[in-house]
Amino acid sequence: EVQLVQSGAEVKKPGESLKISCKGSGYSFTSYWIGWVRQMPGKGLEWMGIIYPGDSDTRYSPSFQGQVTISADKSISIVYLQWSSLKASDSAMYYCARRGLREVTDAFDMWGQGTMVTVSS
Amino acid sequence: SYELTQPPSVSVSPGQTASITCSGDKLGDKYACWYQQKPGQSPVLVIYQDNKRPSGIPERFSGSNSGNTAKLTISGTQAMDEADYYCQAWDSSTVVFGGGTKLTVL
Question: Which residue is closest to A64 within chain B, CA to CA?
Answer without folding.
Answer: B94
